[in-house]
Amino acid sequence: MRDTERELADCVGAIYQAGAGDGSWLDVGDRICRIMDARRAVLVLGGPGGPRNLLMPPDGSESAYSAYFHARDPYAAKARYDFATARAHHLGNAKLGAELVAETELLRSEYYFDFARHHERRHVIGGMAGLTEATPILVSRGDDTGAFDETHVRLLKTLMPHVQRAIELRARLGREDEAAALTRAALDALPVGVGVVDAGLKIRFVNDLARRYLAGPDSALFSMRSGPFAGSGVYLSAMSREEAGLLRKLVTSATSGGPGGAMRVTSRNGAIAALTVAPAPLGLANDVRGRDEGDGRDPLALILLRSLNRKVVPQADMLCEMFGFSRAEAEVALALTGGASAEDVARGRGVSLMTVRSQIRSILGKSEAENLRDFERTMATLGALVPQQR
User: Checking phi first, is residue 40 left (phi over 0); if not, alpha (psi -120 to 50) or beta?
Assistant: First the structure.
């Protein structure tokens, strides 16, 4: 004998697991079909691959429905109309197919003639859900099974509030995942190395530049795996014992309510990098932690890293666009920033010293710099914006 109440409870649990990303929507579809004595269930939601039916495995009929017949489904069209005109009234409700679309209208439709009658969608029961647009659940049977009745309507009505909350949960978690992905992409684009560690220096995140620095021959830092298992974590340390101790001290400060601080680290070949350690902003920390940890966990420290041996200057095109320099003026500006004198620039370019001095006056005027030292500060600022070359 079937235990319908138990099946409903299990289905509700599966719905919330699917909405949270911990379970399968296909399992939900299978359970709904079993409870309703149905052959197919449809819940079309968007995702990375575009809108698709979450409740049935992809096959020829599901592909055809998503690609073409979903837009011509009269039940989906009725749901869109009801949602737009009286959302509060219809949300969470369930109705028999004949209450949604007249039999004569269905049987004359392209949807039924070319699709539904071939794929066990003759008899339908629909439940309304959705956030900003109608997202109905449509449960169907073939001709050989018979129509649904009011018992099935009550069963689907019992499930609909949980489906609605699961859709809301899925949307919220999707926005959080998107925000975290955007945060990481933005950090990867920065011209400085960025790392996030916990109080024990366990690495929670490094951007692309920091990752390449740790793997490079000039690195004064290294990452090491700790513990007997691969999942135990990767930790940050400095090559020098003194620098490693100072790094731990700064991270401890940043994760215990203090300001953190700054330091230099030197590699074995003499390359120097500057580190700034500070408390990680709450939003960044939560994005790094992910949804499983949420707020209120151990505080994290933000580490900013930049090589002091790499002299970075903007490109000539950037100077032309920003200040209106001619190409020759931009090249003179770059040469001066590299430490050359006006005489050196004149010799290198094969022009007179008077020409170079005239170009320098033009450079200072267009950049609104008081003198060459002021202009060098401007160039240093622009250099900090230049992305690292891969």
Answer: beta
- Do residues 273 and 220 touch, judged by C-beta distance below 8 A? yes
Average pLDDT along the chain, 390 residues, taken 10 residues at a time: 83 92 91 93 79 85 84 89 89 91 91 90 91 89 88 93 92 77 78 89 89 85 62 79 94 93 90 91 76 63 84 80 91 83 88 91 90 84 64
Q: What Å distances lie between residue 366 and 254, 354, 384, CA to CA?
A: 43, 18, 21
- Using DSSP, state whether 337 is helix, strand or coil: helix
**pTM more than 0.85:** no
48 half-sphere exposure, CB direction, 13 A CA radius: 3
CB-hemisphere CA count at 13 Å for 165? 10
CB 302 within 8 A of CB 279: yes
Task: Please tell me the distance from the alpha carbon of residue 373 to that of residue 337, in angstroms, as a whole number.
Answer: 10
| 255-261 long-range contacts, CB within 8 A, separation 24+ | 255/198, 255/199, 255/279, 255/298, 255/299, 255/300, 255/301, 256/199, 256/299, 260/301
Centre a 10 Å sphere on the Cβ of residue 372 and count the other Cβ atoms it contains. Answer: 16
Determine the Cα–Cα distance for residues 281 and 285; give it in Å rounded to an integer.
6
Bridge partners of residue 234, in order along the sequence: 225
CA–CA separation, 156 vs 79, rounded Å?
16
- For the chain, how many helices (H) and strands (E)? 16, 13
Question: Which tokens sit at 95?
Answer: 């109705």
